[in-house]
Amino acid sequence: MLHIYIQKLVTGFTLAMMLLPVTAARAEQAKPEMLIYCGITMIRPMTEIARQFEQRENVKITLAQGGSEDLYQSLKKSAMGDLYLPGEPTYRTKYLAEGLLGDVVTLGYNQLAIIVKKGNPKRIKGDVRELLRNDISIIIGNAESGSVGKETKDVLEAAGIYGKVLDASVNLAPDSRGLNNAMKNGEADVILNWRATGFFPDNAKVVDVIDLNPKLAPPQALLLNLLAFSKDKAMAKRFMHYSAGEEGQAIFRKFGFLDNKSVSK
Questions:
Q1: Beta strand pairing status for 138-141 and 220-227?
Q2: How far apart are the first and last CA of the chain?
Q3: Domain extents in the chain
Q4: Greater pLDDT, 52 or 21
Q5: In sequence order, which ranges of the chain are alpha helices (DSSP H)?
Q6: Span 72-99, pLDDT tens digits
């Protein structure tokens, strides 16, 4: 009888051990998930915020990165995801009537700037008309794909020189990362890009930032939008609150962005 009891005990223990991985796998599968569409310029602070929030809420977060226009068209087509963070606020204004963008919080501000090679060897000044010089090579963003291209178009049109700068450009980059890569690869002497990207550690080693007059290039709000088809709006709203709160704002400041209290409304 004792032998039979021990055998049953061992068998039961073995079965329990076999079930542990299955149970753990099911727990992993049951973990809530979020999908955030994030403009490339903000991917670094958002990645850090997402990792902290995952630990805090036991949720899995996927960040889809790209140009702001491309991201909107992707989320519209797929009807999947929870949050959308474009690189400037006109994407909300432009598409609000389509009904996909709901509640919103401001995560901070970015501003267009002239970015040059380290040391500014061409002695470029903080004036967009410097882009018309015939002794420099320039690359700007594509207004059809990303926020930096759209903001570049708006700023240069306000200065009355967009067409001339477009004609003089060596190439058009799809987004802020493409612009910075062009500088690193020696393809241009100067670019117009979001100011914060010039302070990212890997970029700061090779470029300098030249600020533009904020009257011409005003700070642009970074708006985190709740998507109408989010499957867990409560979780998404907690993420919005966390990102706009003190912990999230400290991360945005660390990566060179103006926080959501920096600009008077």
A1: unpaired
A2: 82
A3: 33-110+219-264, 112-211
A4: 52
A5: 2-30, 43-57, 68-78, 90-95, 147-158, 162-168, 176-184, 201-204, 233-244, 246-254
A6: 999 999 999 999 999 999 999 999 999 9
What is the helix (H) or strand (E) element at residue 223, kind and residue range? strand 220-227
- What is the CATH architecture assignment of 112-211? 3-Layer(aba) Sandwich (3.40)
Q: Which residue has the tokens 């890569």?
A: 181
Q: Which two tokens stand for residue 261?
A: 């209290």
pTM reported for the whole predicted model: 0.81
Question: Superfamily assignment of 33-110+219-264 in CATH?
Answer: Periplasmic binding protein-like II (3.40.190.10)
> For the residues of 64-131, what is the DSSP string, one character each?
EEE-HHHHHHHHHHH---SEEE-SSTHHHHHHGGGT-EEEEEEEEEE-EEEEEETT-TT---S-GGGG
Q: Report pLDDT digits (tens) over 249-262.
A: 999 999 999 888 88
Q: What DSSP character marks residue 59?
A: -
CB 226 within 8 A of CB 240: yes
Whether the domain at 33-110+219-264 and the domain at 112-211 fall into the same CATH topology:
yes
Residue 71 tokens read as: 């991201």
